[in-house]
From TrEMBL:
This is Transcriptional regulatory protein. Its main location: cytoplasm. Keywords: Activator, Cytoplasm, DNA-binding, Phosphoprotein, Transcription, Transcription regulation, Two-component regulatory system. The keyword Aminoacyl-tRNA synthetase does not apply. PANTHER family: TRANSCRIPTIONAL REGULATORY PROTEIN DCUR-RELATED, TRANSCRIPTIONAL REGULATORY PROTEIN DPIA. Residues 8-119 form the Response regulatory domain. It comes from the Bacteria. It is found in: Cytoplasm. InterPro entries: 2C-system_Tx_regulators, ArsR-like_HTH, CheY-like_superfamily, Sig_transdc_resp-reg_cit/mal, Sig_transdc_resp-reg_receiver, Tscrpt_reg_IclR_N, WH-like_DNA-bd_sf, WH_DNA-bd_sf.
Length: 221
């Protein structure tokens, strides 16, 4: 996502230190920007109306109210980040639409992976009309929580591979992608497979005069 189109994230947590830490985690993920955190649950509806965040990061136990009540009241995507591990609290959060539930404290990597999965989920559901395969793929990407994503150390390579395929007018072979990005064929194949599985590029076949059909990769239009 280019600058200016970053997904806006609002952290709701009464602990100023924790809220600032989670906002910093958000800002470290490309494509996301943290809004000033909110510490009083009573002001959240007003702040949401004014800032129009794409995603909320909600604690459950808050002074003057509950993050679970906000899930029911607000029409905004949300993750729950909480130390609450009671079954009823978790079930209520998921029943009311929480897209992820992270138990505090957690490593920065865990939230980053969830955010990257959320960005993929948003891209997959951006079309005006969706078929069943696209809906199922978006759900898998979201629930994977980063398991389908490339390792963070290879994020730049993954983005380079995606950019090469997206910029091409025609479908590319593995060899052509490897040459365009400057990586080995095996590395190109690994990232192409991950991107195709996540639904960010499409996989096709080209049949020649003999031998096996060749895999070709194209942009999702």
């Amino acid at each position: 996502m280019s600058e200016g189109n970053d997904l806006k994230v609002l952290v709701v947590d009464d602990d100023f230190r924790v809220a600032g830490l989670h906002a910093a985690y958000v800002d470290a993920v490309p494509g996301f920007v943290a809004l000033p955190p909110v510490h009083d649950v009573r002001t959240v509806p007003r702040v949401v109306a004014e800032t129009r965040p794409d995603l909320l990061l909600l604690d459950v136990y808050l002074p003057h109210g509950s993050g679970l009540d906000l899930l029911r009241e607000l029409d905004v995507d949300a993750f729950v980040l909480s130390a609450a591990v009671e079954g009823p609290a978790v079930r209520t959060a998921l029943r009311r639409g929480a897209l992820a539930y992270l138990v505090k404290p957690f490593e920065e990597r865990m939230l980053a992976e969830r955010l990257r999965s959320y960005a993929r989920y948003r891209r997959l559901l951006a079309a005006d009309v969706l078929d069943q395969a696209a809906i199922d793929r978006a759900r898998r990407v979201l629930l994977a929580g980063g398991e389908e994503a490339a390792p963070s150390s290879g994020a730049a390579t993954e983005q380079a591979v995606l950019a090469a395929v997206s910029a091409a007018e025609d479908e590319l072979s593995v060899v052509e992608v490897a040459e365009a990005v400057g990586i080995s064929r095996a590395t190109a194949q690994r990232y192409l497979s991950q991107l195709a599985q996540a639904g960010l590029i499409r996989l096709g076949l080209r049949y020649g005069l003999r031998g096996r059909p060749e895999h070709r990769y194209g942009a999702v239009r």
